[in-house]
Amino acid sequence: MPNTYTQIYIQIVFAVKGRENLIQPINKESLHKFMTGIVKNRGQKLLAVHCMPDHTHLFIGLEPDISISDLVRDVKAGSSKFVNENNWIQGKFNWQVGYGAFSYSRSQIDSVVKYINNQVDHHKKRSFKEEYIDFLNKFNIEYEEKYLFDWV
Questions:
Q1: Residues 58, 63, 64, 65: what is their CA dihedral angle, to the nearest 10 degrees?
Q2: Cα torsion for 131, 135, 141, 146, to the nearest 10°?
Q3: Residue 18 CB: number of other CB atoms within 10 A?
Q4: Residues of the chain above pLDDT 70, percent
Q5: Which residue in 15, 28, 135, 137 is deepest, having the highest Cβ count within 10 Å?
Q6: The pLDDT of residue 91 is above 60
Q7: In Å, what is the CA distance from 119 to each residue of 24, 84, 148?
Q8: SS3 label, residue 10
Q9: From the centroid of its chain, how far is CA 38?
């Protein structure tokens, strides 16, 4: 019987609205678990997640039955609601519109997971803006800086 076989690995990066530092270290683990649940409930495999105060990285083994944009929409909407229901900030928490999605081969899984898990040390040397623009350049993605995230 024929079947569908795929191997799709995607790193997704998105920012807090206004690039504010709203994700506190005390809440990171709960937010990671909540995002993991959303990804799993959509039938996808989360390989790594790391929330910095102003942005998030997800690394996903993606099944072809869902679009990246639908998955990102669900993660962002669900996690925003979760943050707001837990009253982690004054006012309303939102993610910025847009995201980056970058594909990798199976041989790169370990290095991408290590990269994501090492975000705290990584950002002692480079800003999120530098990191994000480097991704766009590395993957030869054409962009206009005025349409990227709102930089503080």
A1: -100
A2: -10
A3: 14
A4: 96
A5: 15
A6: yes
A7: 14, 24, 21
A8: strand
A9: 13
